Amino acid sequence: MFAKESGLLQGTVELLILKALSWGPIHGYGIASWxxxxxxxxxSVEEGSLYPALYRMARKGxxxxxxxxxxxxxxxxxxxLTAEGRRQFRDQxxxxxxxxxxxxxAITTRAIPSWAK
Amino acid sequence: xxxxxxxxVPPKPxxxxxxxxxxxxxERVQAYIASxxxxxxxxxxxxxxxxxxxxxRDECAxxxxxxxxxxxxxxxxxxxxxxxxFALRSAVRAPAFTLAAIVTLALGIGANAAVFGVVKxxxxxxxxxxxxxxxxRIYCPYRTGFTERGALSAxxxxxxRERQHSFASLGAFLPQRDAIYASSDVPQVMKSMFIEPELxxxxxxxxxxxxxxxxxxxxxxxxxxxxxxYGAWQRVFGDDANVVGKVIRLNSIPRxxxxxxxxxxxxxxxxxxxxxxxxxxxxxxxxxxxxGSHNLGFVGRLKPGATVEGARHELARxxxxxxxxxxKDNLGIGLDGMSLRDAMVGDTRTPLLVxxxxxxxxxxxxxxxxxxxxxxxxxxxxxxFAIRVALGAGRGRLVRQLLTESVLLALAGCIAxxxxxxxxxxxxxxLALSSLPAYANLSLDRGAVFVTxxxxxxxxxxFGAGPALSVGRADPQDTLREQTxxxxxxxxxxxxxxxxxxxxxxxxxxxxxxxxxxxxSLIAMTTAPLGFNPGKLLTFTVQLPNAKYGTVxxxxxxxxxxxxxxxxxxxxxxxxxxxxxxxxxxxxxGLFIRDKPWAPNEPVPFILTSRVxxxxxxxxxxxxxxxxxxxxxxxxxxxxxxxxxxAMAHRYWPNGNAVGAQIHIGPPDPTEPWITVxxxxxxxxxxxxxxxxxxxxxxxxxxxxxxxxFVVRAAGSIDPLxxxxxxxxxxxxxxxxxxxxxxxxxxxxxGDAFAPRxxxxxxxxxxxxxxxxxxxxxxxxxxxxxxAARERExxxxxxxxxxxxxxxxxxxxxxxxxxxxxxxxxxxxxxxAARLVRTQLFGVAPFDPLAIGGxxxxxxxxxxxxxxxxxxxxxxxxxxxxxx
Lengths: 117, 884
Known about the structure:
Chain A contains four helices and three strands.
């Protein structure tokens, strides 16, 4: 539903990753699965594009990676939020809500503009 | 402990990403299989879901690599900050060591920076001319060995111009001379120089203001235009922007200033204030002086493609031709050239290189000393390092830490050293400017600072490397298990220290021997009798205005009257006048002896010539050996007479029959009478830095009246300078228009003659003393460490019945061996030093036993004092305290 290279998609993916990690450290596969189920498959992004987003966020210092072991005793790279990441999550969530609310309000309004009367 | 010390080396970015993606795929496949798909479908679906794997991999790898690099940079700076912080802390914890290290380094680096500043400004800085490398100075070497750098005659200058093919342009000049500049009312004595207009063009110099000379400016009978130096413009004319066009009176003749030369301009010799245009045409018209008076300097600019060697060959060929054509004047005189820089550097090159070598030796000693100190400091910190290694610090990290510490010390030493160098150059400026080429401005320029900073850095890394490597080898377990209380130096570090001390001793004894030889030479020069009594003499020069004193009679009468009035002053024991003060005679004349013509291939000897008043010999205390001195009878109208010195009498009349002999100055001329030798006087060394007196002849001022330099001997205990006021009054009572200048005592005139010799001696002695101090510190440190390290062992020995004398012998045997080795190696160094300073020595053999023995004894004495304390401490070891 979003163009693949659009900044909107990238920003959205980052916000979703921040949300996923706000529950606690998890690996890339876990993040992808969570997005899938949390958005009822509406945002079934190409899973590959998740990883560049993760590395970019790591560079920005929002998240950090560490190798760990899964419940099934497999090596996996776990990501967790940094303090900066948590701050970003708060700011971006409220920003997104204002943005989405404004767009929703605009496209659902019943007030007819003056030039359409 | 920091996080980094435990870090496992991370895998390559590519591999890490592959791992991560593989995990993702496998999990996804598992999930699909769990939901009932066949493994093949699950695999296909999972890959599809992931998208373009290759581009994801590449993108992630690029991001991760960049990330890693940024982190490495952050870590590197983090480590550096940590190292620096630690280095500062450990420097503060050992203040004595730190201070000693910085002071030692400052001395070594300061000496080097100062000397390099001098060397660079003299030997490396560019001359104030365009493309100066193409400029050559042309000289007349004398086959008699009288001088290698004789001046040229006008005829020779003109002939070279006609015959040469090597030079694009050539310019001649006359030596700088005094000129009277009359500003408002006070006549000032300044320096002027006659230069050909072509000289400025040859040097590639254009005036900073106004115009240069036109080619015919020198052709008028009286030159009416003048160029002024930048210095004169500032000093005399106060930066006057309208100075060009101004008319000034120079030597009582009005002349127009046509231009100001650039700030950095200097002629090939001298430092004149005024430049007057010269033409050799009038000289060419005078049949006697055209080839008879050799007084021109000559500079040429090589044509493109011409070489210095080629030009020298051509000059030698022209010289041989002129010698054949004009044997009367040119016999024994050749032609040669050298690069203008070499000509301007003159005799200062060798002493400067000797100094540079000495300063380098001091720096080597400094480094050896510091390396030794750092080695023993590292040993005392061994436990600290062992603990750090045991806790996980990498060896590389420790080495880096040590290098940081020593570079930090080196930089601190460098800054202190530069400060010292600036002070030193300030001192040198006062001491040395007269003995260095005029273009050298002694400053610590960017080049000198750069070289010094590099030296400091290399020093830091060099003396940091040894201890750092020894840390790299240490085994932390052994070190920690060892009772560090009594840990002794390992054999290896003991040997390293020994070698360092031996090296210091070798370098130090070489330097001391060189300094000793120079000191002995200077003493020999200054204490050898000059041939007259220079004490209590006031000297000054007058200038009799030509307009008033144009005739021989008028001049002789004026000299007589001036001397008579001065002699009558209270406190004056004697007064006489002479053309050039003893030790500063520069006038030479060709000698021809009646009935003993020179063989055709025998060069005509040139003899120092001075014109004197009747009582000069009595006033100076020069003894009369044979015949008589001058009297009032030696008038202008009387037969010409001459007095010669012993050296001349001995050389040309070895049978002792000089008195009565007849000679001629310049080639015999039937229209001129022969001159009769009437007396032989004692030798006066004209060059006080040479011990052999030169042949000299004296003419009477009554027959050759040009004797403007006065010598006045003060009576009793009177200070000769205190006579100056009454002398000035006496002169102005005779004629107030006669200027008095160049006032000095004879002793300070002699001091000026010695100044170029004194400079390297003073500096090298200072370096020798510095080296001695540093080497003593090194010896002290070696014995102190050795004694401290073996304290327990000595305790045991004493407890077992060893005598204190035996302990002392033990310490001395261990350290003494290295000192003897140092002295043995130093013997080679002494030989090198003697060879290096040989050309600077006068009256001393290069292997003067007193100088070399003195150097060795001084070193042994200082080392002895240095080892006294540690050896004494070793002998007082109390077995009970040590073994408890």
